[in-house]
Amino acid sequence: MSSAATPEAGGAVMPLVRAAASRPRHSQLSPGRIGAYAFLISSAVFFLLPLYVMLVTSLKPMDEVRLGHLFALPMRWTLEPWLQAWSSACTGLECHGIQVGFWNSVKIAVPSTVISIFFGALNGYALSFWRVKWAGRMFGILMLGAFVPYQVMMYPMVRALASVHLFGTLAGIVFVHTAFGMPVMTLLFRNYYAAIPMELFKAARIDGGGFWRIFLQLMLPMSLPVIAVAVILQLTNIWNDFLLGLVFAGRENLPMTVQLNNVINTTTGERLYNVNMAATVLTSLVPLAVYLLSGRWFVRGIAAGAVKG
Q1: DSSP code of 219?
Q2: What are phi and psi of 189, to 5 degrees?
Q3: Would you say the pTM of this structure is higher than 0.85?
Q4: Comparing 301 with 276, which gets the higher pLDDT?
């Protein structure tokens, strides 16, 4: 009798279970969740509000800017401040806009990023798999450079570059960015390679692979996640740099950040706040684009390193 009743009871209960499972679950707003949402929203407003002010001001004519309505949308939209900031804003005695600084930043950032990442990966590979003598001490000395302020090393590097006729040149500023980025890049790749099994390296050695063949054909293809992280870190740091570009680039290679400072501080008559805001947004477009387009790769690379470590 019990065996006959069990299927009937099960058949009656199963539709109720399915119905309960299909109902949407209403999450309750606990005080902790409300506090987390409030913190996130306030943080987003805090960081996005200056960007909003810059955007709306850059799209207003000066007669609207003078009204003082900082957060109001433009009554008459215009792109003239953007065109002027890009092509005709004055940076001192020259009025060619910040387009010159943009291309200078490209010429500085691209080779500096590529070279520093390549040598950082090479150092991390050598320190992880080729147990040379004094490798640990050499790595410690290299890491010491990551904690020394730029200002302390500024004057010695100026004298050193001037002695080899590289001060104020494109090659000089590329070398400076590469040197200052080397400690962080080496640490990043060394930690990533340290998590790779040594047996893989030994198998490549048994197959006849040498130092460069293993590095170029085995290690670099495996390093795509950490390379994405390194590109984002190094490119944004170099693009946003002001001090090194101002000191080492020379008058012919001033980056976009220095040109932006010259645009804002150059006044002939009235101060054009809409042009200044447009120039500021144009200068920050590349870091913003890198973050928006590559943010998920950055998270994946960090997560991959964390799982491997």
Answers
A1: I
A2: -75, -35
A3: no
A4: 276
Token pair of 11 as six digits: 């058949």
Q: Do 127 and 188 meet the contact criterion of CB atoms below 8 Å apart?
A: no
The one-letter amino acid code at 63 reads D
Give mean pLDDT, residues 91-110.
89
Q: Which of 109, 186, 192 is nearest to 145 (CA)?
A: 186
Q: What distance in Å separates the CA atoms of residue 124 and residue 107, rounded to the nearest whole number?
A: 26
- Per CATH, which fold does 99-308 belong to? MetI-like fold (1.10.3720)
Contact 258, 249 (CB under 8 A): yes
- Residue 94 has phi, psi (to 5 degrees) of -100, 140
Please report the pLDDT score of residue 160 as a whole number: 92
Alpha-carbon distance values, 287 to 76, 123, 214, 234, 270 (Å): 29, 27, 34, 11, 30
| CA gap 127, 122 in Å, rounded | 9
Burial zone of 105 (CB within 10 Å; 0-12 exposed, 13-18 middle, 19+ buried): buried
Q: Which residues contact 79 (CB under 8 A, 6 or more apart)?
A: 59
Domain ranges in the chain are 27-78, 99-308
What is the C-alpha to C-alpha distance for residues 231 and 233, in angstroms, rounded to an integer? 6
Tokens matching residue 263? 């645009």
CB atoms within 10 A of CB 7: 9
Which residues have C-beta within 8 Å of that of residue 248, sequence separation ≥ 6? 157, 158, 161, 167, 168, 172, 173, 176
Query: Kindly report the CA angle at 235 between 115 and 254, in degrees rounded to 5?
Result: 90
Q: Comparing C-alpha atoms, which of 294, 193, 180 is closest to residue 238?
A: 180
